[in-house]
Amino acid sequence: MPAAALAASPTDDQCLEVVWRTLFSADGSPAQCPVCGDRRHFSRVRRRRASACSTCGHHVYPAAGTFLANSSLPLRTWSRAAGFVTGCGDEPGVQDLAVQLGVSYRTALRLRRRIQQAREEGGRDARLVASLAALCPAGNARMTLRLPRRAAAGPLPRHATRSVPPPARR
């Protein structure tokens, strides 16, 4: 991924905050703990995609039960993919998505299918796709990849040209 695109991308912490606010606490105020049953403050757990209840310590994984579940991809990749898929009026090409995100074709295909399925089903996953797409640096516009320019093609080196045809093979 180009350095400029990486610098403009949201971080995983920002993406996790968007997931938390979309699914649990829209205004960032305390959310309801599934164990305590009360509205409690949650703090971020380091090195995990989780938040811990301030009273009982129960860990809540906001991505669990969503289209993001069981994925080892960074959340910023999901955010960029959501922005690309929702930003294209027509169905985006898988190869374009793979190039934009710097992932393999199979991974890009899986990303696109999961995002499109979440949008079609509606509900909280559709809200989550919209929130992650809004976080994308390109907004809902189609992302463009800037490739470095090649050097101007000059004459071939002397050793690359052949004045004598190669010998016939038997």
Model description:
The protein has 170 residues and is mainly alpha-helical. A hairpin with a 4-residue loop joins strand 3 (42-45) and strand 4 (50-53). The longest helix is centred in the middle third of the chain and has 17 residues, at 105-121. The protein is 41% helix and 8% strand. The protein has helices at residues 3-8, 12-23, 75-87, 94-101, 105-121, 123-135; strands at 31-32, 39-40, 42-45, 50-53, 59-60. It is built from 6 helices and 5 strands, in the order ααβββββαααα. The strands form 2 sheets. It has a 3-stranded antiparallel sheet with strand order 3-4-5, with no helix packed on it. A two-stranded antiparallel sheet has the order 1-2. Mean pLDDT is 79; it is low at 1-7 and 139-149. It is elongated, with a radius of gyration of 23 Å.
Brief digest:
Helix content is 41%, strand content 8%.
List the helices and strands and how they pair.
Blueprint: H1 3-8, H2 12-23, E1 31-32, E2 39-40, E3 42-45, E4 50-53, E5 59-60, H3 75-87, H4 94-101, H5 105-121, H6 123-135
Antiparallel strand pairs: 1-2, 3-4, 4-5
Helix pairs in contact: 2-6, 3-5, 3-6, 4-5, 5-6
